Amino acid sequence: MDKQNRKAIIAGNWKMNMTPTEAGHLIDALVPAVQGANCEVVICVPFTDLCVAVAKCSGTNIHVGAENVHFEKSGAFTGEISADMLTDLGVEYVVIGHSERRQYFAETDETVNKRALAALNGGLKPIICVGESLAQREQGVTEELVRMQVKIALNGVTAEQLKNVVIAYEPIWAIGTGKTATADQAQEVCAAIRKVVGELYGEDAAKALTVQYGGSMNAKNAEELLGKPDVDGGLIGGASLKADQFAIIVDAASKG
Ligand code: PGA
């Protein structure tokens, strides 16, 4: 199984943007713009936008995701949201381990792993983010670092559960900076991710895994990035907040 047989997924990561009212307007514009997509379309939105997103996306081809999930099932964790709360709402995906959470909210590879397991056990599909800083790239440790992040994130994930996992390669230096990784850099690391998953779960599982690129992907560069053999989709920040831009990226992924 190769690229054509894998699920291409374009996921918007809205970050801390859009009130519920604004979210409703954006989704109203998105629904017609992506209805002909030949790839999976996901919007990962703030917790407060999930209700409106699930309601407005119901009966459309847009799937809804959250931007984080807590690893405990329930209890005294003020301010946190569990996997069960999300699935009960109709949420399907969840972003885990985004570099902004690692950088500003003390997320570690270990908590990423705990969240991934909680998400999978709760019936959510985790989009697990990995990626290096500029200093790490310059030190030549990108591949080792990303391999380690992937291995720790997947610790305890069964082969059956892996079928619901998406991994997003997001070089930190490319996020929100307008500095996209070149298509070759994206390909190189996405292939390395597939390789380590192959070592852990076997060749067939690796070939079936959706690996996204994220980091300043936009309407202009999407086609080249998504044309690479191991880049199966994108995790889109800034460009996911504009329906027309997001739709162009979805179109690029639909072409394969
Ligand atoms: P960006 O964000 O597209 O704005 O660079 C990507 C991300 O953080 O997922």
UniProtKB/TrEMBL annotation:
Keyword 4Fe-4S: no
Catalytic machinery residues: H98 (electrophile), E170 (proton acceptor)
SUPFAM superfamilies in the record: Triosephosphate isomerase (TIM) (SSF51351)
Main EC class the enzyme belongs to: isomerase
Family that this chain belongs to: Belongs to the triosephosphate isomerase family.
Self-association state and partner proteins as the record states: Homodimer.
Protein name (database record): Triosephosphate isomerase
